[in-house]
Design goal:
Distance between the termini: 66 Å
Number of domains: 2
Strand order of the largest sheet: 1-2-5-6
CATH architecture of the largest domain: Alpha-Beta Barrel
Structural class: alpha/beta
CATH superfamily of the largest domain: Aldolase class I
Number of strands: 12
Shape: elongated
Largest sheet: 4 strands, parallel
């Protein structure tokens, strides 16, 4: 924009402090209570908008246990805490399933936030959440899905302004990392000098977003197949075919495409030798 639109363009892009899953898993015992992590984030950002991904483990526990515990800290904070679910059907997650099983999922994120924090009723007669709390769904939102969500919220008496929508790769090209089941997740953290395995595992997902856990090693099997081994010790991890190339903001090793071809040739030759041995 600055290249083609000369002059004073004002603010071109803005962002807000926002967590992602490895931040939450690094700061919380595996599948543990996230209250302390939320409190830490609120303390770190005492004012303005801060967005917290809230379904790393159990979104409904966050909404019904963690946030009530932190109610006073949230409503006295100089800014808005934005709750970000990231798994499941966006409309059901935000608006509720209305199945009437007396479960949090029946109500959905917006109604549960209203139950805890309340708010006001606007001139059109729709409920607007307390300005200290809000919700965002950051991906998988199409025009049709957005329309469905705001209509379902309106039917429950909630204003569309209670939710912010994000547009990600799902919306503009319909090919995402999930298309190929490929994503990068943190699986192990050194916390206070002690190593801890960690894993993302949302209860609102069907299991496809459950990540690997702990130190990892990709090893070659007897038939030449590549196998992922989870929660291994440091010695086994050191034998993995996956080796660090980047750490602490610096490259450890540069690789050319010739390096890749040479390594593949070595593996092919090793596999052929093992195959001949087995045949003999």
């Amino acid at each position: 924009m600055r290249r083609f639109y000369k002059g004073d363009n004002g603010i071109v892009l803005q962002s807000v402090p926002a967590t992602e899953h490895s931040v939450m898993t690094a700061g919380t015992p595996e599948r543990g209570d996230e209250t302390d992590m939320f409190r830490s984030i609120i303390s770190l950002y005492p004012s303005g908008i801060v967005s917290v991904v809230s379904d790393t483990y159990d979104l409904w526990a966050v909404l019904t246990k963690v946030l009530p515990e932190l109610h006073d800290e949230i409503v006295t904070r100089d800014g808005k805490l934005v709750i970000r679910p990231d798994s499941g059907d966006p409309a059901d997650i935000l608006c509720g399933t209305a199945i009437q099983k007396n479960l949090p999922a029946d109500k959905g994120v917006v109604e549960l936030l209203w139950d805890e924090f309340g708010g006001t009723v606007n001139e059109q007669g729709y409920k607007v959440l307390d300005p200290h709390i809000g919700a965002i769904y950051g991906d998988s939102i199409t025009v049709e899905r957005a329309k469905d969500i705001v209509e379902r919220l309106a039917a429950k008496g909630f204003a569309s302004t209670n939710v912010v929508f994000g547009v990600g790769s799902f919306t503009y090209q319909y090919v995402t990392r999930d298309t190929f089941g490929s994503a990068i997740k943190a699986t192990w953290v050194l916390r206070s000098g002690e190593g801890h395995p960690m894993r993302k595992d949302p209860v609102t997902d069907n299991g496809s977003k459950r990540s690997a856990r702990g130190r990892l090693a990709v090893l070659v099997g007897d038939r030449g197949e590549l196998t992922l081994h989870e929660n291994v010790d440091a010695a086994t991890e050191a034998q993995s075919l996956l080796q660090p190339v980047w750490a602490d903001g610096e490259f450890i090793e540069y690789q050319s495409f010739r390096n890749v071809r040479d390594r593949l040739a070595e593996q092919a030759a090793s596999l052929a030798a093992r195959t001949e041995t087995v045949a003999a």
